[in-house]
Design goal:
The complex is a heterodimer. By secondary structure, chain A is an alpha+beta fold. Chain A contains eight helices and 20 strands. Classes of the chains: A alpha+beta, B mainly alpha.
Chain lengths: 366, 263
């Protein structure tokens, strides 16, 4: 059961006094679509560059297929990088670009032609071989870059913000195609992006990077719904963050004092410590004060909790729902963001009861 | 009214400036077609006899051949060395890249006379005689900073990714230079070569001081001039000028075509 293809062990990269990434440990499974997600300057591109062999880490080891490749130059690694600007060769045709890697590997001309045509067909550019690079649109260039990379059948394909330069519509289309491509080739993709929606829609696993460290790692649903850290909760979509102090801890249940009152939730923390609790806006239920919809409706993790009353201070139509900002807690201590259905009878200035389920209160690691 | 006056004065100024720059050349070319013994007014009507004389003058033709050889080989050497220096400074900058760049560019400020004298001393020390090779070396020295500057200025960061992509796909250093860097830098390399060739073609002081029996065309014209004014000298000068201008024109057209080809 050796399905770990790539392993980063205790990787640190320093540029003089600046630490780009610090003590990164990461395993990538064979056939996985892994996304390195983080804001710019977080170190995600450095990690990709270390995988590709363009950057040698200051400390740590890179294993691919069990082999130590830490010092190995890019040409000898079973990886190929698709660059952010595609880095296509402008003086060659599409076919010559795609054939370049095969030529460098000494593949015979006849085989080369066949493999190039096959790769172009895979990315939906059959018959484009004779075109020049400058005749192609951004999306088509992206496909050529992909074809040039997959034609040499790398064990790991590294994608450095490959969709960053594309229009929203083509970007979404390319996201779907990347996933389809990765599944049909049974290849291992490592994809860098700063776009959390892109990460959620394509990743098998997301690695959330910030300040050169891994903040969170896991399937996108888990990372989104139960973020591990304060950064993870705020970077992945909107979130309500409640700062609080643990008043009692025991048997896996905490009682935490927050600006909107005392909350009970599952988790481990020391009594007296400062913690943050995250609640996604769509997990907050808003009921008008008269018809209290946030009533108790069961036990365990689905048990409802009342978060007190709030005054609606902002209501923004968003198509499928409305974004609602409420002033909640004693004396309007904090703002709570919620999504409310279009048919809910509330207006700015009206009061509402807020509720959620215990399971949707997420304790964040500091 | 004021605008008209402005236009007129601008026009006069422009004409004066162009006249100042081009009149000597126009006179030189005009009197190369002189019918008569002296290249001085009055102009006595067009004739190609002096060109016939020039082209049948074996010394002049030998000098022209020498000039072509020196110009082509010294520009080739300067462009090659300039490209390699620019490539390494742009792609794999050494520790003191700034100082290296400065040292490469500095000779541009040294007068040709000083360079020629220095070379004379050095060639004397190593026992190398005055020759076309010596002239070629001198021209390589004066053109290297220029070739380096032109090519270095055209290396951009997006080219860096192309080099890396080629390495990533399995190309070695020489393959990257030959298959990627040179074709991409072709316009800059060609421009550098053409500029170096015209500068070498026109160069006089170094060619005069470092050559003895085989001389280049400017030196030969200088020797002819010492024998006195003659429309034949004008004809030879016109040939030098015409070849310089055609080289520049070819370079300019090639650049336009390449630029038009992209995007």
């Amino acid at each position: 059961m050796n399905d770990v293809l790539v392993e980063l062990k205790n990787i640190t990269k320093r540029y003089g006094p600046v630490t780009a990434v610090e003590n990164i440990n990461l395993s990538i499974r064979r056939g996985e679509f892994l996304v390195l997600l983080g804001p710019s300057g977080s170190g995600k591109t450095t990690i990709l560059s270390i995988l590709g062999g363009f950057t040698v880490p200051t400390e740590g080891t890179v294993l691919i297929d069990g082999k130590d490749v830490t010092q190995m130059p890019p040409a000898q690694r079973p990886t190929v990088t698709v660059f952010q600007d595609y880095a296509l060769f402008p003086h060659m045709t599409v076919a010559q670009n795609v054939a370049f890697g095969l030529e460098m590997r000494g593949v015979k001309r006849a085989d080369r032609l066949r493999l190039v045509e096959q790769a172009l067909a895979t990315v939906g550019l059959a018959g484009y071989g004779a075109r020049r690079i400058h005749e192609l649109s951004g999306g088509q260039r992206q496909r050529v870059a992909l074809a040039r990379a997959i034609v040499v059948e790398p064990a790991v394909l590294l994608l450095d913000e490959p969709l960053g330069a594309l229009d929203l519509k083509i970007r979404q289309q390319m996201q779907d195609e990347l996933v389809r491509l990765q599944k049909t080739l049974h290849a291992t993709f490592v994809h860098v992006t700063h776009d959390q929606e892109e990460a959620m829609s394509i990743a098998d696993n997301v690695v959330l990077v910030n300040g050169g460290k891994i903040e969170d790692y896991g399937p996108p649903e888990r990372v989104y719904l139960r973020p591990a850290t304060l950064f993870a909760a705020t970077f992945m979509g909107d979130s309500n963050i409640l700062a609080g102090r643990v008043v009692s801890a025991g048997a896996g249940t905490l009682r935490v004092d927050t600006p909107i009152g005392q909350l009970a939730l599952a988790g481990q923390a020391e009594a007296g410590s400062e913690v943050h609790i995250s609640i996604r806006p769509e997990k907050i239920r808003v009921g008008s004060a008269s018809t209290d919809r946030a009533a108790n409706d069961g036990g365990g993790h689905s048990e409802s909790v009342v978060l007190g009353e709030g005054e609606v201070i902002e209501l923004v139509f968003q198509g499928t729902h409305r974004r609602c900002r409420l002033r909640a807690g004693p004396g309007g201590a904090t703002d709570i963001l919620a999504r409310v259905p279009l048919d809910l009878d509330i207006a700015v200035g009206s009061r509402a009861v807020l509720g959620t389920r215990i399971g949707d209160l997420v304790l964040l690691r500091n | 009214m004021r605008r008209l006056f402005g236009n007129i004065s601008t026009g006069v100024y422009l004409a004066a400036m162009l006249g100042f720059i081009y009149l000597p050349v126009v006179i030189l070319v005009l009197f190369s077609f002189q019918r008569g013994m002296l290249p001085v007014p009055p102009f006595e009507g067009p004739s190609l006899e002096w060109y016939e004389r020039a082209f049948s003058n074996p010394r002049l033709m030998a000098a022209l051949g020498n000039s072509v050889i020196v110009a082509l080989s010294s520009s080739f050497a300067a462009t090659l060395l300039g490209f390699l220096a620019a490539y390494s400074l742009a792609r794999r900058p050494p520790r003191y890249a700034g100082s290296v760049r400065f040292l490469l560019m500095a000779p541009i400020t040294v007068s040709y006379l000083i360079i020629a004298l220095g070379l004379l001393v050095v060639f004397n020390m190593v026992g190398m005689s005055k020759s076309l090779l010596a002239v070629g070396i001198g021209h390589t020295i004066i053109n290297l900073p220029l070739c380096f500057a032109i090519i270095y200025s055209q290396f951009g960061d997006h080219h860096r990714n192309m080099d890396q992509a080629a390495h990533d796909l399995g190309a070695g250093d020489l393959q990257v230079i030959w298959r990627i860097a040179i074709p991409i830098m072709r316009p800059a390399i060609f421009a550098a070569f053409c500029l170096a060739a015209t500068l070498s073609w026109d160069e006089f002081i170094i060619a005069l001081l470092l050559s003895r029996f085989d001389v280049t065309l400017p030196v030969m014209i200088f020797e002819l001039l010492r024998a006195g004014l003659s429309p034949e000298v004008n004809a030879a000068g016109t040939i030098v000028f015409a070849i310089s201008m055609s080289t520049v024109a070819v370079a300019a057209i090639a650049m336009l075509l390449w630029r038009g080809g992209k995007r």
